Amino acid sequence: MNRYVVKNQKKLALGYTTGSCAAAAAKAAAVALLCGEPVRQVQLMTPKGVLLTLDIEDMTRTPETVRCAVRKDAGDDPDITHHMLVYATVSCIDADIVIDGGEGVGRVTRPGLAQPVGTAAINPAPREQITHALEAVAQQYRYSGGFSVIISIPNGEELAARTLNPNLGIIGGLSVLGTSGIVEPMSEQALIDTIHVDIDARYAAGQRTLLLCPGNYGADFAKEILGLDISRGVKCSNFIGEALDYAVYRGFDGVLLIGHAGKLIKLAAGVFQTHSAYADARQEIFAAHAALCGADTETVRALMQAVTVDACLDILRETGLDKTVLDSISKKILAHLTRRTARKSGRQFAVDYVIFTNQYGVMMQTEHAADCIAAQREEKKQ
Question: pTM above the 0.85 mark?
């Protein structure tokens, strides 16, 4: 694709996700299936609103199916999936759109991930992309039936061994990912510089309490569940410590931090760069605080073997320790946040947070978080 961003005085090419590849391949296969002619290119509108024109490779046909591939382009992002082929095999069925994974697409083997145990590791957003693309094809060709879609990545199992998938309980291949459909290059210093510029803009606009979200999950939760104006907020990715430091330096009075527990739970261990390549202390945090709150050895061991925060919460709820343990963790998070901001500012700096999971909703929040949210809503009206 011919789109770029400028970060840290460098021109960096954007790419597109495995989810976009899967959706485009499925769309091409469905068109070829219904019209009977080869398809060389397709257009695909991404969730981000970027229209892609993608080449179709390796089209094969049987009497009942069409199989097409799209080559992944990660742009200037250092992604191990760059240039791999993502295939979609499509056939007609009586009704509905049924999506599954084939060769090289992982299977979920543990609870708590985006998809249920036993299903293909194709995340919700790519599934929606595929579904919307095929619904459009059906409408275009006045087709009233359904489609079966099998997504496959021939070298996916080999590539997955170099990812976190095996540790997460995703076995046999890669995950099909992407919330926006577009890959933006990941340069740490460029991202930090961008965060600083964004914080500068919020301060210049007169804000004195900074709305901070690590990523899309936090921003979506802030907007859809809490009713906040996310255009006033800053996405800080995994650089929570950098964002806090700069907010203090810039002169803000406080921060309202809203994010998924998968990242923010790490703050309880004093981890302020939350990318899994730096630290992943989620299980250890739950296990340590559960032990402090009286959990038996079996429960602590189960927490250490859990894959996700939701899985840990399931275990704690079964033992009746969830509220006690979450209160203990929440106090530790607040202590680390307060210590970090106080050390940098030398003055009073209010830190409030809302930490949630998709399964359980709000999991932890500070005492004054509700007041801070209400104030943000009032500012939104003005």
Answer: no
